[in-house]
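Explain this protein:
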Amino acid sequence: MNFAPVQLFTLTIALLALSCASYFDVKTKRVPNKLWIFPMLIGATTTPLMVEQGLLQVDEVAVSLASALLLAYLLHKMKILGGADCKAIIAACLLTPVGRGRPPLHFLPLALMTNMFIMLGTLTLAVAAAHLLRKKVKVGLKNEEKRTEDKDATVFSWRKFSPPLMPLITLSLIISFFLGNLAFAAIP
């Protein structure tokens, strides 16, 4: 795969912004809004430049950005993603729009979301399984400890087992940029 220098530059900016956001997400669970200003400005400047150079087509960029905005909005409204996660997806799609010749299933917003949810599901199930195994293996607890543990067991939430999303979005961007949509990897 050959990439133009401007594409590698925007990918680098996207990865730096997402890495900073991942740090804040893991450490404080809050990502400052100021973090997204610079990447969005760079994306708004370089995307028209890439269209002008013939690296991207206007319709591909329009579909990519429109679908990123729509998916981010819907997932935020359904309370599946937080505000910073949605901003990260929009910034990533603005900085690294889809190049020519990719099938529709590999558009960056769809690939990014699909890859992120594949990784999220896998990690969440692994953590939940490890938690359940650890619970089953524990023996010889006092009666009081068992009662408090049973109370916690009745209130089950997948959010308890899911990791922070920002690092997954960062990893998903790398996978989506270079490999495309993992769910449809067999489709050329």
